[in-house]
Amino acid sequence: MPFSQDPGVREHEYYCSYCYKNGELTYKGDDLHAFQKLWYVRMRQNGMSRWRAKFSAWMIRFAPHWKREKRLFVGPVNTYH
């Protein structure tokens, strides 16, 4: 999510208020694609346009947490609709 449009209070300089709360990341899994799909659905439910939600979900791979994951680019690229 673009930080300028984050409706919450950001606790970390690298993550939005949805991803980082109470001093830790909110998503506990290690599956990038599952998180992207979850993020896409949530943003669409919050009224984000389809294109913007897809782009936002795609950008997740560049967050520091996911850049460290070794399985980052394994699997289908676009699994969310």
Q: Can you tell me about this structure?
A:
With 81 residues, the chain is mostly helical. The chain has a domain at 29-81. The chain contains three helices and two strands, in the order E-E-H-H-H. The chain has helices spanning 32-45, 50-59, 64-67; strands at residues 20-21, 24-25. The protein has a two-stranded antiparallel sheet. Strand 1 (20-21) and strand 2 (24-25) form a beta hairpin. Helix 1 (32-45) runs antiparallel to helix 2.
What is the average of the pLDDT values? 82
User: Major beta sheet, specifics?
Assistant: 2 strands, antiparallel
Radius of gyration in whole Å, from Cα? Answer: 12 Å
The backbone outline, from C-alpha atoms, is: globular
**Low-confidence runs:** none
The helix-strand sequence is EEHHH
Helix share, percent:
25-40%
Key terms:
81 residues; mainly alpha; two-stranded antiparallel sheet; globular
How are the elements arranged and paired?
Blueprint: E1 20-21, E2 24-25, H1 32-45, H2 50-59, H3 64-67
Antiparallel strand pairs: 1-2
Quick rundown:
With 81 residues, this protein is mostly helical.
